[in-house]
Amino acid sequence: MKNKYLIFFLFIFSLFMFTSCKNKIDIDKGKEEFYLEYSYYFNEENTNKLVNREKNPWTWFDKDTFKEAIDKNKVISISYDEFLDLLNSNKRFTIYFGFKPESYQCPYCVITLPYAINACCENNQDMYYLNIRPMRVANDANTLDELDKAHDYLLNLVKESFADYPEDTLKAATYVTFENGKAIKYHLSTYQDSEGNWEKILTDEEKSTLTNDFLELFK
User: Fold this and answer.
1) Residues 6 or more apart in contact with residue 89 via CB below 8 angstroms
2) pLDDT, tens digit, for every residue of 143-192?
3) The pTM is what?
4) Which residue of 99, 111, 160, 205 could cross-link 106, Cys pair, CB 3.0 to 4.6 Å?
């Protein structure tokens, strides 16, 4: 009889360990993946192309400030399934929905990331990152496949909590804090000018506001 109880106990324990570790996030690996992806912007050739391109040149880009932020190693790249696990864990966490630089160079990601990372440091936290570019491409093409459905699910998570989210697609440089499976705070991109265009060159006042907005996101 005792053997039966022992076997049952070992079975339950093994099942628990398997379930809890099945999609456990490898923090070090995730940080390394993010760093390798976003070091795209440190590459001199890539930087020169962005700064000197004919259409919308990145004359505002401060590579040194960006690299200094990325070097702080506060961002963990995760998969969509790992995000779902985090969401279902009911833990509190903040995630950055952005684009992989090799697939699309997002100016608003580059502008806002240093502010977000500095806020991470101030609050002694890490931040997760999910590359939403494949989902956005699927959604823009209305493919109705799993990637398209994933995009809609993520967008609905944000919009069901925030009626003021101003977009009908999930935009890159969207930062969201989740708790108990629900979005409780968010920040989108930079700020819009009088014509509704997202700004790339910020005033000192806007920089100060952006700093405070991200500090609040991580509180």
Assistant:
1) none
2) 999 999 999 999 999 999 999 999 899 999 999 999 999 999 999 999 99
3) 0.89
4) 99
